[in-house]
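Board notes (copied after class):
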Amino acid sequence: MDEKILFKKLLDHSVEGILVVSSYSKAIVYVNNLVVKLLGRDIDEVINQNLDQIISETPSLRNIIKNSEHEQFYDEYKVSRESMIVGNDHFDVFRFYPLLSTNDAVNELIELNQELKAIYDSSYDGVFVTDGEGKTLRANQPSIEMCGSTAGEIIGKYVQDLEKRKVFYPSVTVKVLKEKKPATIIQETKSGKRVMVTATPVFDSSGKISRVVSISKDMTELIRLKQELEDQSLLVGRYRKELSRLRESRSMFENLVVESSSFRQIIDTVNRLAKIDTTILLQGESGVGKNVLARYIHQLSNRREGPFVEVNCGIFPDNLIESELFGYERGAFTGAKNEGKIGFVEIANGGTLFLDEISEIPLKLQVKLLHFLQERKFVRVGSTKLIHVDCRIIAASNNDLAVMVREGRFREDLYYRLNVFPIVLPPLRERLEAVPRLAEYFLEIFNRRYGFQKRFSREALEELKKYHWPGNIRELKNLVERIIITADTTVINGPQVVVHLFPGGRGERSVLDKKHGLKQILFNTEKRILKEAMEKEKNTYRLAEMLGISQSSVVKKIKKYGLRQLNNSI
């Protein structure tokens, strides 16, 4: 219940008559039911009216209002006048006390107390009242339940002590007493609830705070729903991101299947395994495309409508990876979110969980991971509740897990649980026939991204095939992006590729990669140098000067290597 509505009900049902007038404008800003009844008018005929106008139409009030600094009487009521300050506004409050017998007064007080208690307790919101020192005078049942306490533990206690005991914290009453103005904050209570509290000070005639009235609203459920909405938004974002990645992976694997004979057998195996809901272990060097193959498996599987959640186990510190994978409850550790956090495993429910660099998982956590793989159940950090997740597991590593098992760095039982269907991806240097189509595939992607229309020459693609590719497909992709950005021609030629492959010069290429003798190596090297020089200089005389040989030697070498004749004019 809104605090303003609550206060109005309290005043309207009071056995006292209350008339509030602006000290400046003399406008009537409030009357309760009793005063309206005494005046014999409708409330609309009184509110916002000038007090002098009302007095002129009700002569019997004239002396009462005029002399109310002293005790006055009106019918069976005693009238007093008090001043009240709210912010920068000043008000005159006229109070009409009924002249009752002692028994009548006692009965009225008992009835009023019962009415007030009924109003307090019927409120869904918590109502908490203290005096000007912070001592608790009353608290309704919802307020007590929000605190997770009993009335005896709260009534008569100071809010400063309740705050120290974490019955509720921080205390909004302490804030109001200090700042002398209304305040709204979010509190946490001993019962684990999160509560929005609005506290309002009440001032006496001397301007001191005589009461602080707090209205509390339980926000626990609202915050839980907000967290669920954020989790759903996170899932939607992941779905969109994975949809884009899956589209890209489909095109990429079409290229690999067509151009790479060594990869056809792997794809055939993947096509058979994808619809079988079993664990797959992908192994191979860094950059060979294990994550792309994992997405491809997910795309072909019966879980393709569910999420694909990729987790690089190597990027998290040992003390955080468990909470990232399995989530945690509120207050599980220092720095944890108050509302807790859902883990990657739980997000993957109904889809595929891809654990990349699984060799980096600490030995202690491998036990929990093994239990999850066997039971598909786990417990969040800081909780005792079992959570069931239905997802497929694909793991990947660029380390030899069998060797790690022998060295005691990876659990043997976990290794065999993951190694149900192992797939080894060969490095790019062992399937160089795929390089040209992969390069053209990446070139198409970056052309669209940057608004270019560039293409590779045949010579450029041949240069790419001659490289060793220690960084595999990832290195090829990064190289293509670097070339397309820096190339100042539409057609990307061989020397432009070589410059990026060997920034320090051709000498970086190892002759150990060559299968030819020294004579053939020297022949190929001289031919490449001459071709690169001819790209920069078309005149044979200036070309000779550039190379430090005679013009006739240049002409002979051009003929020797079957290169096109240049301009011989000076």
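Comment from the instructor: Residues 133 and 177 are 8 Å apart (CA to CA). The longest strand covers residues 77-86.
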